Amino acid sequence: xxxxxxxxxxxxxxxxxxxxxxxxxxxxxxxxxxxxxxxxxxxxxxxxxxxxxxxxxxxxxxxxxxxxxxxxxxxxxxxxxxxxxxxxxxxxxxxxxxxxxxxxxxxxxxxxxxxxxxxxxxxxxxxxxxxxxxxxxxxxxxxxxxxxxxxxxxxxxxxxxxxxxxxxxxxxxxxxxxxxxxxxxxxxxxxxxxxxxxxxxxxxxxxxxxxxxxxxxxxxxxxxxxxxxxxxxxxxxxxxxxxxxxxxxxxxxxxxxxxxxxxxxxxxxxxxxxxxxxxxxxxxxxxx
Length: 288
Fold this sequence. Notes:
Layout: E1 24-35, E2 38-49, E3 53-57, H1 64-71, E4 79-84, E5 87-88, H2 94-101, E6 104-107, H3 119-130, H4 135-148, H5 164-176, E7 182-186, H6 194-211, E8 214-218, H7 222-228, E9 231-236, E10 239-244, H8 246-250, H9 255-262, H10 278-283
Parallel strand pairs: 3-8, 3-9, 6-7, 7-8
Antiparallel strand pairs: 1-2, 1-4, 4-5, 9-10
Helix pairs in contact: 3-4, 3-5, 4-5, 5-6, 6-7
């Protein structure tokens, strides 16, 4: 598979309407989740439609990565349902959860490459773990995935020899090597220069369209998400503050949505963490 040529953009799926239950690969229904007394979600419902790129956005600390952990069954919702591939994740035993995860590819925020393995062996690692393939077939598969992300020539390099953008692309090749049905990206643009970011944006879109997979992208990069997402959710204060196509989110009237989309420091998301009165705190007797 070869990514889309520079300057060309694959056609988007239909946008603007909320995904129907029948189309949903992931269906999170009225989920509540708290850590101690801190409520992370207070009734969150989101869906990822088959074949579409769905964005999960929101200010830092709004639970975007927590949502991914719920989808993958790493943690369990205290109320509500998380349904993936038609199965309720909370009801799956260990073996069933393992089988479900085999259908999902994950691009971690930091790439998470194995530092003592070459690029080739990093991409080959999931195949060696889960599938028995003759070495020539494995080699062809790995080189094909590296070709898809433009790094076939880097197969023999070690992770320490890669730039940040190259490492992210190798991690993406590893995430797609077993041809997942669902591909999840956790903050894929963090720490990348503009060129590397543009490459990752194009790869997300072209791989999604060419492979016919479903993608969930967790990010707070408004411009990049707006270029590729078919449908977006914005999380804030434990709820879905807004949802719709990227264009619809830009037109939303809620203050928190406007603050997030414009990157304004002033708005419902405060600069100061909650604290007692400043002068009263200064006059308090020091604690021993």
